[in-house]
Amino acid sequence: MPVWLQTAALLSLSNVFMTFAWYGHLKTLGNKPWIVAALISWGIALFEYLIMVPANRVGYTELSVGQLKIMQEVITLSVFLPFSVLYMQQPLKLDYLWAGLCLVGAVYFIFRT
Questions:
Q1: Are the CB atoms for 71 and 63 separated by under 8 Å?
Q2: Are 21 and 45 in contact (CB under 8 A)?
Q3: How many domains does the chain have?
Q4: Which residues, in sequence order, are CB contacts of 85 under 8 Å at separation 6+?
Q5: What's the whole-model pTM score?
Q6: For a disulfide at 14, which of 42, 51, 57, 70, Cβ 3.0-4.6 Å?
Q7: By residue range, what is the domain housing residue 59?
Q8: 89: left (phi over 0), alpha (psi -120 to 50) or beta
Q9: What is the pLDDT tens value at each position of the chain, 113 positions in all?
Q10: What's the CA gap between 51 and 6, in Å, rounded?
């Protein structure tokens, strides 16, 4: 499997954990003290880091730090959009499209040779 694909797959999985760690508590722990939400989020974030660190190490064998960062941002938006709409029940806005198009430009500039 190509390095970029291994990296993207691992970063996608880590991003699912990250998104739930950062935003999931807003829906599920809204009635709990913030410290409870923080501790649970840190526990979830541990799994994110256990996947993200190897993903970046694998990716760095062939990709630059800038390329890894832009890949991460594209994956973040790709994971966040369905999370926001399906799990958090937020309205789908055209702004996601515009943000995505900006990221397409970022991908172009960081990956062009």
A1: yes
A2: yes
A3: 1
A4: 91, 92
A5: 0.85
A6: 51
A7: 3-111
A8: left
A9: 999 999 999 999 999 999 999 999 999 998 999 999 999 999 999 999 999 999 999 999 999 999 999 999 999 989 999 999 999 999 999 998 898 899 889 889 988 87
A10: 11
